[in-house]
What we know:
InterPro entries: CSPG_rpt, FRAS1_ECM. It comes from Discoglossus pictus (painted frog). The chain has 3 domains: 2-76, no CATH class; 85-201, Immunoglobulin-like (Sandwich), CATH 2.60.40.10; 209-312, Immunoglobulin-like (Sandwich). It contains 3 helices and 29 strands. It has helices at residues 23-27, 155-159, 271-275; strands at 2-3, 9-13, 16-17, 31-35, 45-52, 61-62, 65-66, 69-76, 85-88, 92-95, 99-101, 107-110, 120-125, 131-134, 152-154, 163-166, 177-185, 194-201, 209-212, 215-216, 222-224, 230-233, 243-248, 253-259, 262-265, 268-270, 280-284, 291-299, 304-312. The longest helix is centred in the N-terminal third of the chain and has 5 residues, at 23-27. The termini are far apart.
Amino acid sequence: IVEDPPFFGEILVNGVPSERFSQRDIIDGTVVYVHTSGEIGLQKIEDSFNLTLSDMSEEWTIGGNTVNGVRVQVTILPVDNQSPVVTVGTQFTVVEGEKNVVTPFHLSALDGDTPNDDILCTIVVQPTSGYLENISPAPGSEKSRAGTAISAFTLKDIRSGNIYYVQSIHKGVEPVEDRLTFRCSDGINYSQKHFFPVVIIPANDEKPEMYMREFVVMEGMSLVIDTPILNAVDGDIPADELTFFITKPPKHGHIVNQLTNGTVLIDNFCLDDIKESSSIIYEHDDTETKEDSFEIKLTDGKHPVVKTVLIML
Length: 313
């Protein structure tokens, strides 16, 4: 008779829960203990139950002592049967052309029967505008692996701050997002596939381009400087403010801003100033010469471009 039944399981006889069984049932192998309490984690646990002989049983003696009951100890061993549960957390951001570390706040996983550090994540689909790198040295080496794309990493790598997303593809293109697809494994069981999205913060990384054609001015006259003869383009998104600086003024004239109350000599102006109804003007000083020129520098606040404007008189 089963007294004080087990806490983490139950006794089955011929597959049916039972509180009593015979010695014949044991001999026939029909009595089993079944663990029913679910996941036990990483460590083994102990269970137990008591058996008492019924009044109908023959007397049981061991070493001359009559035995009325026994206590059965059960050791339940852990089994790796749980898949990692992955969490993609805080939004991951990176500045265009730079890199940022992937932390446990961005990506984590839990596995009830595997140490977290042992969980391995594999990249199923690589990002298109960058790559993941592991800056730690390879086993047996002292040299960092920074700059080399990886296809797998452990949660220990992330916890140690070794995994970075590198935003490497940005020249001539302006990516604003990226993503990779990955899944994690404890060595036996796999998680579902997950997306890891990357938000790319625009940066001033593109050098502006300046376009011009030869200025043609009648002697003693002036010429409106507008976009058909002087223009610029910036590849950054959003576009940076573009400014022109007169680094070497013309020898036979002046660059001025024509206002309602007169003209003002200037040494710089913005692209927006000459896009519509430009008031930026080259004035010839009426000297006897066939040509003039000035040097102009275009900048987006970071990258300068210098060219010489030719003026035919």
